[in-house]
Amino acid sequence: MISSVRLKPLTWHPHIAPVELSAATPEQLDAMKVTPSAKKVSEYVRTLAHDPESCLARTVLFNAIMYVEGGLPRPDRELGALGASMVNGCRYCAVVHARQHAHLTKSDALVTALYLGKPEMLGERDAAIYHFASRLSATPSQATQDDIATLRAVGMDDIEIIDLIHAIAIFGWANRLMHVLGHAQSATSLPNHQPGT
Amino acid sequence: MIDAMDKAAGLTPGNPVFEARRLRPEFVQGTELCRLSVLTPQHGLGLETGLRIALARRIAALNADEILIADYDAQLAEHDQSGHLLALSQGAGDLDEPLATIARHVDLVTSTPSKAAASDIARLTEAGLDIPQIVALSELIAFVNFQTRVATGLRLMRAS
Fold it and tell me: Mutating which of A56, A61, A164 best tests the B interface, going by the most B Cβ atoms within 10 A?
């Protein structure tokens, strides 16, 4: 019996000073406003607001890719994000999207398999998504037409595959911001040893 | 209308992948706005467009993306008529500062992002980049790595 992996959220701190709200230009304030959690602007958003044009454009695109209605189910987008984040070595993003996946599917099974390095435990559809995410995230990409054929074979249509490509690719972007511009703290994966029954 | 991503992925109207991509207008428009925001921003923060295109070409090469390499080569020819950014764009290592430090950072973050550390940001500061420039450079590097992956995925769909 494999014990399940539960991940605690990490905190992120930038290597450079974020924009202070009191000193922000109108353009920076506008760029920061687009985020879903407008109450408190995170250090991450305030760091990227130093370049408000790209910050605004990327936030709009990121939200569309992760939350647009229809097409690829949310957990599959989270799996694409997780697979990319593992290849790119962004621990912070990996934990966020592993937790999202567990939350949306109400199961730790997939996250447990990946964090224990046992992707062979994944079901057919999850395995197809995970392997494509890993190969597309390599530099240069190692993805092949066989990967697309496998995604189609598990039932994915063109729009779902387009959604998946974008979910993976946007983490080729986000990971290169988060892991490069700051660091994650208090990493704890808690193996939850359940007594055998 | 064909946009930069269609061009990179070899998509034309009538192609099933071209048409499927239009079912996600948020992605089509969003990607193009992002491209403009990192390559030809209204406020360049001291990083000129020629430099941005040269770095994008260098990143495309690290990703072995022949189509994007050719596309950025063509753009660079327009923006760098003196040719002083050619070596940088083609992956040279022996460059003047701050280009040497910028190139090192671009290569590191593109090829092995997991190895990036606080000291790499400190190097950029020591080379004379200010904080907005470090952020703008980071977004540019990250965007081209996004762009090549979307293009690669769409090309594979088109060919399958």
Answer: A61
Q: What is the pLDDT of residues B32-65, one digit of tens each?
A: 999 999 999 999 999 999 999 999 999 999 999 9
For chains A and B, CB pairs below 8 A equal: 171
Backbone dihedral region for residue B17 (phi beyond 0: left; psi -120 to 50: alpha; all else: beta): alpha
* Chain A contact probe: residue of B149, B152, B157 with most A CBs at under 10 A: B149
CATH number for the domain harbouring residue B97? 1.20.1290.10
Q: Which residue of B lies nearest to A27 if distances are taken between CA atoms?
A: B43
The whole-angstrom separation of Cα A109 and Cα B71 is 44
Q: How many CB atoms lie within 10 A of CB A161?
A: 25
By the CB < 8 Å criterion, does A7 face chain B?
no
Asked if residue A101 is part of any domain, the answer here is yes
Mean pLDDT of chain A: 91
Instruction: Answer whether B24 sits within 8 Å of A159, measured CB to CB.
Output: yes
A60 lies within 8 A of chain B by CB: yes
Q: How many separate domains does chain B show?
A: 1
Instruction: Using alpha carbons only, give the angle A67, A41, B117 rounded to the nearest 5 degrees.
Output: 90
Is residue A4 assigned to a domain? no
- Tell me: ipTM over 0.95: yes
**10-residue block means of pLDDT along chain B (160 residues)?**
96 97 98 98 96 98 98 96 94 95 98 97 98 98 98 96
DSSP secondary structure letter of residue A154: T
pLDDT at A194 over 50: no
Tens digits of residue pLDDT in A20-58: 988 999 999 999 976 555 567 899 999 999 999 999 999
**Are A165 and A79 within one domain?**
yes
Across the strands, what pairs with A183?
Answer: A13
- Residues A76, A166 share a domain: yes
B31 interface with A at CB cutoff 8 Å: yes
Specify the pTM: 0.94
Whether A40 is covered by a domain: the verdict is yes
State the residue range of the domain holding B39: 4-159
